[in-house]
Queue: 4 jobs
Job 1
Amino acid sequence: MKSIRIERALKKIGADLKNARLRRSISTEEMAQRLDTTRQTLNRIENGKPGAAMEKYLAAFMIFDKLEEFENLLENDKTGVFVMENRFLPKRIRKKKNRK
């Protein structure tokens, strides 16, 4: 199932990574080397194409000194804390029995 929101997010992240690379005057060849990948894969990442390994995105965030921010995205997970505090999580999940 494709999600329009995910496609948009990939394109935005790719464009942001490309802009960060250009602002730092890093060539595509140098960036690809730093990511330990090919220029074609870098191009796919910067164009928001799905299928690039998460490792490459994280390496790009690290190059731009943004990895820590990415690592902490869900640290203040207000919804998760709310659910946990209100004990909405079941202790275990059981399969429903087939009733005939």
Job 2
Amino acid sequence: MEQEQLNPQQKAAAEYAGAANNVLVVAGAGCGKTKTIIARATHLIGSGVEASEILMLTFTNRASREMKQRLRAQVGELADEVVACRDGAVSRRDGVVLRLSRVKTLV
């Protein structure tokens, strides 16, 4: 599970192991939010977290598909078990354990 090069802030978010289970990534356009979230999911899977317990939220269906594609390039078929959706769709999913909370862009 090779990760792309991350800057220190991205690496800290990707490898966070504190008391909170959720990570909120807030950054402007083009700052590497998606790369950071993919690195976080890859790190969690590599640390033994079940892929089916990971939820990645974003604002658009297109962005959620892109996250899944990037994650698949990192972890292969395990990416199919990760839930990636736009934030309005999460209320329709039962039994999902939040490991990754919301992905927001503030421009």
Job 3
Amino acid sequence: MENQTVGIRELKQNPSDIIARAANGERFDVLSNGKPVGVVIQRKGAIRRRWVSAEVLATIAGAQGDGALSAWADDIRAQRELDVDPIVDPWGASNLPESGKP
């Protein structure tokens, strides 16, 4: 498949379209004043996740040997006990003024 070209102006005006097409395998050379300055391509490989599912966590812990998951949980509990600045809900009832309104 031949590379498509896209100017910066068009990329700014239609980013969703260009990204969707790149996700489907098209490749774009980005031009600024007619000169190539970048490339938009399909990402290869796994996408990083911010959260890990319980199944994935269990698999990781299982790969590290028996008791790895419980040791990890114990480490987190110990860290929470040492935490001098606990996480609080800023909108929780205990943080509202006496009127009950923020």
Job 4
Amino acid sequence: MPRIKLYIIGAASILLAATFAIAQPAHNVSSARHPNLSAAQRLSQQAYEKISAAQTANEFDMKGHAAKAKELLDQVNNEIKQAAEAANRK
């Protein structure tokens, strides 16, 4: 019986990790037009990746704080994109 639980936990962990990898923020601000915004977006993406690695290392037992941080980084990414679009309209 313990083996089955390990397989289920392992499969669930892989599925959860794949879900988080898919949801990663996009780097979609032109570095040629907006080098500072592009750099900020790249750094937010790196932070997202580091949080994902921390979640994996801690077996996703972070009481929801890491997931919340990733949600906020996704919002940051969207705001950076909107800032670039607003600057393009000038």
